């Protein structure tokens, strides 16, 4: 059982989810990041590794015991059925670990970072509100290119597979525009934090 109210934080690739989550954490809010949980599950000694090795074979495990992500990425790119099997193993574990972390969380609310929040009914059922980190498309392309070293067409191809920005904007309860500077992002997170402290605490006492 999750004791605190949960704000689901989402956004497209490179929209600034991690940066925004860091500012929430700086306000003392517990942040649970599903990407981090996924990494932990597939790190050396990770809980998912025995099942992944049993299903995909020892070639997909690196010498240090972690998942060989590059090899796995190549496989799931070629084989949609392998992607589904990988997700069938990982997704329930990530959800389970998210709920366990949220159950331990203290405070008026916690932030759960889920890149595919609007695409996943299981996570939509967990969160009380949704917060979209939104970003001007051209700014987003430039930031992802700078961070990843991918070409402009590669970045645009990835973005084309994601839910359109307009659809996300329509589904979100709250939106932060991260087209500006990091200090502008920090100010917006602080404003949302104050809003959540009052509105979610009020909702809880009703
Ligand atoms: P992903 O979906 O790929 O995990 P993300 O949504 O978590 O990405 P971040 O990693 O927070 O996005 O940001 C993407 C890149 O853009 C990072 O290099 C980050 O430092 C940079 N960035 C984020 N917000 C800003 C900003 N307001 N000004 C300048 N750079 C920014």
From TrEMBL:
Domain of life: Bacteria
Enzyme class: transferase
Listed pathway(s): Cofactor biosynthesis; coenzyme A biosynthesis; CoA from (R)-pantothenate: step 5/5
UniProt record similarity statement: Belongs to the CoaE family.
One Gene Ontology term from the biological process aspect of the record: coenzyme A biosynthetic process
Primary role: Catalyzes the phosphorylation of the 3'-hydroxyl group of dephosphocoenzyme A to form coenzyme A.
Record-linked NCBIfam families: dephospho-CoA kinase (TIGR00152)
Catalytic function, reaction form: 3'-dephospho-CoA + ATP = ADP + CoA + H(+)
InterPro entries reported for this sequence: Depp_CoAkinase, P-loop_NTPase
Main localization of the protein described in the UniProt heading: cytoplasm
Organism: Pseudogulbenkiania subflava DSM 22618
Protein location: Cytoplasm
Keywords attached to this entry: ATP-binding, Coenzyme A biosynthesis, Cytoplasm, Kinase, Nucleotide-binding, Transferase
EC id: 2.7.1.24
MF terms (GO), sorted A to Z: ATP binding; dephospho-CoA kinase activity
GO cellular component, one term: cytoplasm
Residues involved in ATP binding: 14-19
Protein's name in the database: Dephospho-CoA kinase
């Amino acid at each position: 059982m999750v004791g605190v109210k949960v704000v689901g934080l989402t956004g497209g690739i490179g929209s600034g989810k991690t940066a925004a989550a860091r500012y929430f954490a700086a306000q003392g809010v517990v942040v649970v990041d599903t990407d981090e949980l996924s990494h932990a599950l597939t790190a050396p000694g990770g809980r998912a590794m025995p099942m992944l090795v049993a299903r995909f074979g020892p070639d997909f495990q690196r010498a240090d015991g972690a998942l060989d992500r590059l090899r796995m990425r190549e496989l799931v790119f070629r084989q949609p059925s392998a992607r589904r099997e990988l997700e069938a193993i990982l997704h329930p574990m990530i959800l389970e670990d998210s709920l366990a972390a949220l159950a331990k969380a203290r405070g008026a609310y916690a932030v759960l970072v889920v890149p595919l929040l609007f695409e996943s009914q299981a996570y939509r059922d967990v969160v009380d509100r949704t917060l979209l980190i939104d970003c001007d498309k051209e700014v987003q392309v430039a930031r992802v290119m700078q961070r990843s070293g991918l070409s402009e067409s590669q970045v645009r191809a990835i973005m084309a597979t994601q839910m359109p920005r307009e659809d996300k904007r329509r589904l979100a309860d709250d939106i932060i525009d991260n087209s500006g500077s990091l200090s502008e992002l920090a100010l917006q997170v602080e404003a949302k934090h104050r809003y959540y402290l009052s509105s979610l605490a009020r909702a809880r006492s009703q």
